[in-house]
């Protein structure tokens, strides 16, 4: 049994966790040899699975050449190539890439670039970045300021300039008579109302996760929402930032989720599946005129020591190659549809599953007391941690959160690597069914 941890991850808990030994494909093994299915790709990171030999070989070759070159001293070929390869996968016009080491850094970079663009255009009154509640955009103070997840933000409120929030489109909880299209428009209008309340001249940008992640459990809005949000941003000259840290790099069955609705954001934020856990890597991708304007005004006042380092970029390039070579974006769409229908099927057996949602392989289910009211399960049941614990014991990793702003509701992300096969989906579903059945017995009156 591992001893109580003393390292960084475990600042959150004294609870020992199994000691990781190795990973292979969609499986992870601890030092006792126990095997786990990585049913959430870590935190929706390991998109191409573990220990991919092509990625390891590309990294080994780069390590033998140069592991680090400071970005202000040298350009590096892998960094330039990854920028082009990333831009090639983006909607036309989004062709400038600022590399960083993770999602929070990428969000900060996008927001600061947006701010400098406004200042350079003589619109220095614009600084507010409107976001949604619930949402998650990162843990650094800037990214936290746009995060709508009270347990993580409230203690730090005095230390940051909290940004205005509008309700996220949690349509599955609505009990009105609207059809989905009208509901989507209703939620989009919250943005217009908020812009008018704040004063349009003070609003810089709107940031949203096109398919929600940790905070909302794979929340997808009705189609009408996306186009209307773009229109509203255009009406007031507000930049639209898509945070695709979780939804990007193929996870939803498109390289970025924006493609599903034909939306062209002004800035796109990537991380997680981008280098798929092989190296820390993130990116803020911007319209070239935004970057040119900032450059003309003296340059981007921002940077991280490790930003754009060649080793991380080689890993990113090799991951993109694998996504293409194995056609993983298409696999995410096909396997996602299969997994979603299998999760939908669980609703027949377990009345406490209130909703199954998501796109591609960014999928989640939510537990409720009953479907009529959609009230959450009692907090004391601690369902979000108990069900994860049961699944873990059985060798299946799923990712859970208490949702709806962080205080109530339990959702579970089922997001295996994009390399998952039909047989492996059977395996995941077998273990999940067993875990749910044990959980049902435990909570039975
Ligand atoms: N944005 C989104 C949508 C995320 O899901 C996350 C991480 N869960 C972040 C930003 C922050 O990324 P990181 O933890 O790499 O800083």
Automatic annotation (TrEMBL):
Record-level Gene Ontology MF annotations: pyridoxal phosphate binding; transaminase activity
InterPro entries: Aminotrans_3 (IPR005814), Aminotrans_3_PPA_site (IPR049704), PyrdxlP-dep_Trfase (IPR015424), PyrdxlP-dep_Trfase_major (IPR015421), PyrdxlP-dep_Trfase_small (IPR015422)
Keyword field: Aminotransferase, Pyridoxal phosphate, Transferase
Pfam families documented for this protein: Aminotran_3
Cofactors (names): pyridoxal 5'-phosphate
Superkingdom of the organism of origin: Bacteria
Matches recorded under PANTHER family: AMINOTRANSFERASE, AMINOTRANSFERASE CLASS-III
Family named by the database record: Belongs to the class-III pyridoxal-phosphate-dependent aminotransferase family.
Stated name of the protein: Aspartate aminotransferase family protein
Lineage of the species this protein comes from: Bacteria, Pseudomonadati, Pseudomonadota, Alphaproteobacteria, Rhodobacterales
